[in-house]
Amino acid sequence: MNTKALEKTALSVRALSMDAIQKANSGHPGLPLGAAELGALLYGEILRHDPSDPLWQDRDRFVLSAGHGSMFLYSLLHLSGYAVSLEDIKNFRQVGSPCAGHPEFGMAPGIETTTGPLGQGIATAVGMAIAESVLAARFNTPKRAIVDHYTYTLVGDGCLQEGVASEASSLAGHLGLGKLIAFYDSNKITIDGSTDISFTEDVAKRYEAYGWQVLKGSMYDFDGVAKLVSQAKAETKKPTLIVLTSIIGKGAPNKQGSHSVHGAPLGPEEIAAARAALGIPGDFYVAPEATEYFAAKRAEWKKAREAWAAEFAAWAKENPEKKAEWDAFYAGKPVAAPQMPSFAAGEKIATRTASNKSLVAAAKAWTNLVGGSADLQGPNAVAIPEAGVYSAANRAGRYLHFGIREFGMAAISNGIQLHGGLRAFCATFLVFVDYLRPALRLSALMKQPVVYVLTHDSIYVGEDGPTHQPIEHLCSLRAMPNVRVLRPADAEETAVAWEMAMARTDGPTVLALTRQNLPVFAKADPDWKNTARTGAYVAKKADGKADVVVLATGSEVSLALDAAAKVSGKKVQVVSVLSKELFESQPEAVKAAMVPAGARVVVCEAGVRTGWEAWAKAADIMSIDRFGESGPADKVAAHLGFTSDALAALIAK
Ligand SMILES: Cc1ncc(C[n+]2csc(CCOP(=O)(O)OP(=O)(O)O)c2C)c(N)n1
Ligand SMILES: [Mg+2]
Questions:
Q1: Is the CB of 157 under 6 A from ligand 1?
Q2: For residue 47, is it left (φ>0), alpha (ψ between -120 and 50) or beta?
Q3: C-alpha 118: how far from its chain's center?
Q4: Could you tell me which of 629, 257, 229 has the C-alpha nearest to residue 458?
Q5: Quick check: helix, strand or coil at residue 422?
Q6: Does residue 156 line the site of ligand 1, with CB under 6 A?
Q7: Cα–ligand 2 centroid distance for 261 (angstroms)
Q8: What are 572's strand-pairing partners?
Q9: Which of 279, 293, 323, 399 lies at 20 to 30 Å from 491 by C-alpha?
Q10: Residue-level pLDDT at 105
């Protein structure tokens, strides 16, 4: 190990970070300065990666969970040879710069996931480690291990205070993810000051209790940390937490060790003092020794990757069937054409139950579909018997028992999806989407097509009462950019919704599904399966030009069909709105074909009115703008005015 070059690399990380943050007049120097040595060691000696092929499937993954320390990552990406230029670093935190305020997936090669919301990074890393083990079990042969890499993450005090980190770490310990290695930048400082004011637990003991191996060392001891990493790798049955004692902002002589260095530029005087103390000769300094060191490393890395490629080619030749599957996995394509289920008109079946049939069919075609529920396998109807259960003993299993950890589940699903090669889904009650919302937001921001199976989608849940009855949830999910909310109205629509979810490549899909049975109804539009992909289609056509168009979603479509049958003297058309936001994004002509100009619009949805006002007058919207009630579903619905008689009366008005 070339300690001198590593020291010069750490020096360059400090120099670039303090200058970029000063130039932007915004940012967080504490972590990049305090953890620069680990960064040098990680990017120089520990990671198996190749900046000339940043998407190399068998690269080690690194997640900067403490995303506020983004300059740590950008400096190291630049120094080690990724396509992050000095110019990019000088544009840190400027509009359009790949060096955004917090690391953003897709903005620059080498950023494995978006971080910044503390705690989610380590949870996402858990998902990546799961993905690695699934793919290794699926593809490696006794002769060749073509999937064999580690997942590293760097967490701070903040990440380890967040509940989502606990959820995911508990599961990681249970699953025995031996190739997950987390470094803890233990500087005992957060924004408000010393961790003494709010965080005095024994983190090491907590992680031991989760089933992790816990090791301790100093952030500034290259040999020591390298040895700890070897020890972490030697423990194949447990994830490892390496607690590194550190000094926040190390190198800024008057500010280091204090919370003042966490999240504000050092200022010209402190920068001058730091330069003098560290021997930094000028602006945006990169030590020549660091440049030389990484130039040599790049040649080594390229060779290592080419050796893997040769191994892969030999493997592909020996295992043509596995290779075909591998190609499909990485292209996001099914290995066989999906055979979605069909249903008979009149059949009464809950959309969650229909969803299970579609999920099982999808899992047959997309043999890389991996996921599960937060302890609601039965209620969410997400069992996939032939997929097997993923566990420490069965890495080839594709069903994940996430336990009652909704937020951890969704962040882990992002990691599984981001890793590459797999499709992820997860499931819980729709009302508990609030427990996982921040991870759904990152799925949407990162354009990851995770499928969220969210059942028990309204007051029709019944007896479990208001805590379990979604009210504002459909509206709030529709408000989140790039989330596609699909609320199918019967079993047939559910199959189409699953097809749409699996076909999506650029963002998450929420499937809002019923607990209660719904009739499979005859559709007026003969081409409804295609029309539905616009977000809506005509379920019942008016006789001639419609006087009233009823827009309904999910279970309220059959309510609307019943109501329409009760209305005389008016030409009523019923439109099933599978996806409100998708329908609203269509050209005017598409919308007008279903909702003709001049027709009165009535809306029916068992949720809040907000968002429907553009379609109908407030008095024409049948909605629920209060919390629900505990009672049998039909009684609760009647109590809240959700009957076909009430809707018929509204239509007839
Ligand atoms: C979920 C979430 N809550 C709050 C914040 C705001 N925040 C950013 S950094 C930080 C303190 C983090 O402390 P630590 O992880 O110890 O980082 P250090 O100060 O040591 O760099 C907070 C509260 C955030 N980014 N994410
Ligand atoms: Mg800290």
A1: yes
A2: beta
A3: 14
A4: 629
A5: coil
A6: yes
A7: 11
A8: 548
A9: 399
A10: 98
Residue 142's pLDDT is 98
Alpha-carbon span 643 to 482, nearest angstrom: 33
pLDDT of amino acid 154? 99
* pLDDT of amino acid 146: 98
The upper half-sphere exposure of residue 503, i.e. CA atoms within 13 Å in the direction of its Cβ, equals 9
What local confidence, expressed as pLDDT, does residue 585 receive? 98
Q: Which two tokens stand for residue 14?
A: 């400090």
Rounded to 5 degrees, φ, ψ at 48 are -95, 100
Predicted confidence band of residue 293 (pLDDT cuts 50, 70, 90): very high
pLDDT band at 30 (very low <50, low <70, confident <90, very high): very high
- Cβ density class 476-495: b for 16+ within 10 Å, e for less: bbbebeebbbbbbbbbbbbb
The residues pairing with 622 across neighbouring beta strands, listed in sequence order, are 604
Q: How much is the pLDDT for 607?
A: 98
Report helix angle 433-445 to 406-419, nearest 10.
20
User: What's the pLDDT band for 503 if we cut at 50, 70, 90?
Assistant: very high
**Six token digits for residue 22:** 């000063």
Question: Cα-flanking dihedrals φ and ψ of residue 61, to 5°?
Answer: -100, 140
Backbone angles phi, psi at 395, to 5 degrees: -70, -15
Which residues are paired to 452 by β-bridges? 426, 510
Residue 254 CA, ligand 1 centroid: distance in Å: 22
Q: What is the DSSP letter of 332?
A: T
Distance CA 77, CA 97 (A): 14
| Closest atom of ligand 1 to CA, residue 158 | 15
Rounded CA gap, 115 and 128, in Å?
14
pLDDT tens digit sequence for 508-534: 999 999 999 999 999 999 999 999 999
444: confidence class by pLDDT, cuts 50, 70, 90: very high
Judge if pTM exceeds 0.70.
Answer: yes
pLDDT of 166 reads 98
Query: 37 pLDDT band (50/70/90 cuts)?
Result: very high
Q: What is the 3-state secondary structure (H, E, C) of 268-288?
A: HHHHHHHHHHHCCCCCCCCCH
Region 482-496 average pLDDT: 98
Centre of ligand 1 from the C-alpha of residue 165, in Å: 13
Is 406 a catalytic site residue? Answer: yes
Residue with tokens 């069992």: 383
Of 449, 450, 448, 468, residue with least CA distance to 458 = 468
Q: What confidence score (pLDDT) does residue 170 get?
A: 99
414 and 446 in contact (C-beta within 8 Å)? Answer: yes
Supply the Cα-derived Rg of the chain in whole angstroms.
27
Report the distance separating Cα 415 and Cα 419, nearest Å: 6
583 residue type, one letter: F
Of 7, 37, 132, 406, catalytic: 406
